[in-house]
Amino acid sequence: MSMFDLSGRVAVITGGNGGIGFAIAEALARQGCAVSIWGRSAEKNAAAAASLSATDARVHTLVCDVSQRDQAEKATADTLEAFGRIDGCFANAGIGGGGRTPFVERTGEDWRQLFGVNLDGVVHTLQPIVRHMVKRAADGDAFGRIVATSSMASLFGTARNEHYAAAKAGLNALMKALAVEHARLGITANAILPGWIETDMTAGLQGNDKFMNAVMPRIPVRRFGNPGDFSGIAVYLMSAASSYHTGDCIVIDGGYSAF
Ligand code: NAP
After folding, report:
1. Which site from 118, 228, 238, 244 is most exposed, i.e. has the minimal number of CB atoms within 10 Å?
2. Which residues are catalytic?
3. Residue 218 has what pLDDT?
4. Number of domains forming the structure of the chain
5. Which CATH number fits the domain that encloses residue 35?
6. Is residue 4, in this structure, part of any structural domain at all?
7. How many whole angstroms separate alpha carbon 150 and alpha carbon 20?
8. Domain that residue 41 falls in
9. Pocket-testing residue among 73, 123, 197, 233, ligand 1, by greatest number of atoms within 8 A of Cβ
10. Cα 187 vs. chain centroid, distance in angstroms?
């Protein structure tokens, strides 16, 4: 287990107060990593922190809307003040695309709002954090892990969700570029591409029999994923075990994209 011991490490998880992000935060905390959870809702943040109290890890939460650059910069400064360092960042916060509006009816405002959270929000989060990691490398303490939660939608034709698919495809390219730029500083950059996962984001779909009957036979594992299915990849990517693994788009979808 020592390969996955995260004692002394500090990670930021945006959108860490629920769904996939909470499972990532919990998995890291169980390995001894201090976690800083950023989300818009103070209530959800408090509930997440309470749930993590049994892990003995240091937990910190911040109200932050990642679509606002100044809020992400302030949250980075506040995390550094609380923990003194940031070793990893899971830029996971995101909103769904709805999947109902035809492309030709999509408003510019709708398009910008989704990009503001799902793509710009990741840049707002990563820029100040990578700046800190680059400085640390220059000071002789080279280590960084940056991970974005993308989506299988970045690979598939997702009708009526072009804004969501395009923003997630942008994340895949962003993380590959960041991987190449920062590899020599000990900073790895990867994207995780979830398939269909049981969270608040998909609650409407899970109650839609027509949708479920169409999708379930196409998932070889024959179930939606659950947030805990991301625990292992989160610990691995945060750990020293993944030092030579960078620039990847890691699909976790129960085999959906292979079928
Ligand atoms: P979720 O349960 O709805 O969680 C979304 C999280 O993002 C919440 O913690 C939410 O917290 C936070 N968030 C949303 N907008 C934010 C903003 N502007 N600033 C800061 N935090 C924000 O959904 P999820 O399924 O776990 O989604 C997590 C990630 O996985 C997303 O990027 C999503 O696109 C991706 N994903 C999900 C699936 C799936 O099937 N569920 C599939 C592929 C990819 P607050 O409400 O407190 O802000």
Report:
1. 244
2. 164
3. 96
4. 1
5. 3.40.50.720
6. no
7. 12
8. 10-258
9. 197
10. 16
